């Protein structure tokens, strides 16, 4: 293999890709779509609500602290406002100006928690949860204060250390890790279809226009195959890097916690799967292009590669629907053609450990080596053949028969 020839072919492949308008349009659409996926959920979710809670001015510091802790335990923020009594509380609950309060805590007598409108008994609204938490917290604070029991003892009795929670199975991955796994499968699927078919159609067009004959006269077929794969892989790496950078920049700009929830490791693993998976498909799509003689043959020669791609892609969605991955995904996670989409999903749903992910990657890398060798043989034997569409099985058999004939014709060694 000539390194210089491979570099020349790879550079030519990159230039051809950059000249096409489709690349720039697809890249722009991908960047916009990824940015919106990060920004829109954050914009719709907003931040935690802030409740203005009116507390009787005569309330002790312990009661006010209990109110603040109760509201914050529901995930909301709190602002404590002093009120004179019930009349003041009713006026501020009904007001719509800056003096408005959401909840009032009256400490006179046994105490009361007052709201403007009653909550249904089964309400799970945040304001309802906050009001109920305040009612419990103030009741406990009043009981402690009235009991005369030392504060530290009372706190230990009312808030004992919780029992440890043991488990039989490890916790599933976070929603962020599941999202990264699914996003990786989608990106992989799109890039393979985009660049894999681009490689295939490029070879078909070069064969149909006889340009391939000129190229092969200057570059060996194996160098041409390798250069095309290297050039397309470089483009995939660039586009994947742009997508990852878009996610990072968008998350930082809007303060999204998507990266923290998913973890940089999950993003890195998804990136590696996209790269090694594309290498496998790129070699085979390029070889498939050499079997076709005209554009009409492209669909039929690529069908054996499309089937595992479609199966793996749609199976990755089914795995995220439940807590336990199904048997199909467990099997597909170790098949090289589907592992780039299904192993990240299997790991995200708790169905695979680190060593199993490594094993699946090793199997895929070994498959890449075999696929490149087979692709080189097919490409070398069929790239200059035109006319009818060739079958991979026939091309490989012809080569085997030719080798056997050569060995039979060779004179015996003295």
Helix/strand layout:
Layout: H1 3-19, H2 21-45, E1 50-56, H3 61-72, E2 77-83, H4 86-94, E3 103-106, E4 112-114, H5 126-147, H6 151-158, H7 175-208, H8 211-218, H9 221-254, H10 258-262, H11 264-291, H12 298-319, H13 327-332, H14 339-348, H15 354-382, H16 392-409
Parallel strand pairs: 1-2, 1-3
Antiparallel strand pairs: 3-4
Helix pairs in contact: 1-9, 2-9, 3-5, 7-9, 7-11, 7-12, 7-14, 9-11, 9-15, 11-12, 11-14, 11-15, 12-14, 14-15, 15-16
Describe this structure in words.
This protein has 414 residues and is mainly alpha-helical. The chain has 2 domains: 265 residues, no CATH class; 111 residues, D-Maltodextrin-Binding Protein, domain 2 (3-Layer(aba) Sandwich), CATH 3.40.190. The chain is built from 16 helices and 4 strands. The longest helix has 34 residues. The radius of gyration is 33 Å and the shape is elongated.
Main sheet: strand order = 2-1-3-4
Helix content: 55-70%
Structural class: mainly alpha
Order of helices and strands: HHEHEHEEHHHHHHHHHHHH
Alpha carbon gyration radius: 33 Å
Q: Please tally the helical runs, counting DSSP H or I stretches of 4 or more residues.
A: 16
């Amino acid at each position: 293999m000539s390194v210089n020839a491979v570099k020349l072919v790879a550079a030519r492949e990159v230039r051809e890709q950059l000249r096409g308008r489709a690349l720039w349009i697809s890249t722009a659409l991908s960047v916009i779509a990824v940015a919106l996926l990060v920004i829109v959920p954050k914009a719709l979710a907003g931040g935690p609500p802030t409740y203005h809670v009116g507390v009787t001015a005569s309330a002790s510091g312990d009661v006010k602290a209990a109110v603040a802790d109760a509201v914050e335990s529901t995930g909301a923020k709190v602002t404590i406002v002093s009120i004179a009594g019930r009349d003041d509380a009713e006026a501020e609950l009904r007001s719509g100006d800056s003096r408005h309060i959401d909840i009032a805590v009256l400490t006179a007598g046994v105490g009361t928690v007052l709201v403007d409108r009653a909550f249904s008994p089964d309400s799970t609204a945040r304001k309802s949860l906050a009001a109920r938490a305040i009612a419990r917290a103030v009741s406990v604070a009043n009981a402690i204060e009235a009991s005369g029991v030392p504060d530290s003892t009372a706190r230990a009795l009312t808030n004992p250390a919780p029992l440890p929670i043991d488990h039989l199975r490890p916790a599933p991955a976070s929603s962020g890790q599941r999202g990264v796994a699914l996003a990786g499968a989608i990106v992989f699927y799109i890039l393979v279809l985009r660049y894999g078919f681009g490689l295939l159609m490029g070879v078909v067009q070069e064969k149909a226009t006889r340009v391939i004959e000129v190229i092969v006269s200057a570059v060996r077929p194996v160098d041409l195959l390798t250069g095309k794969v290297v050039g397309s892989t470089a483009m995939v790496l660039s586009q994947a890097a742009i997508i990852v950078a878009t996610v990072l920049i968008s998350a930082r700009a809007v303060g999204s916690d998507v990266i923290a929830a998913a973890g940089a490791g999950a993003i890195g693993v998804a990136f590696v799967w996209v790269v090694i998976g594309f290498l496998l498909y790129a070699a085979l799509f390029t070889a498939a292009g050499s079997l076709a003689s005209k554009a009409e043959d492209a669909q039929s020669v690529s069908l054996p590669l499309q089937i595992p791609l479609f199966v793996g892609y749609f199976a990755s969605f089914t795995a995220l629907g439940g807590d336990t991955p199904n048997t199909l995904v467990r099997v597909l996670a170790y098949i090289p053609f589907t592992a780039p989409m299904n192993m990240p999903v299997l790991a995200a749903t708790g169905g695979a450990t680190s060593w199993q992910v490594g094993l699946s990657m090793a199997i895929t890398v070994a498959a890449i080596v075999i696929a490149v060798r087979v692709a080189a043989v097919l490409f070398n034997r069929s790239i200059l053949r035109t006319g009818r569409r060739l079958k991979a099985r026939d091309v490989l058999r012809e080569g085997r028969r030719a080798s056997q004939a050569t060995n039979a014709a060779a004179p015996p060694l003295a």
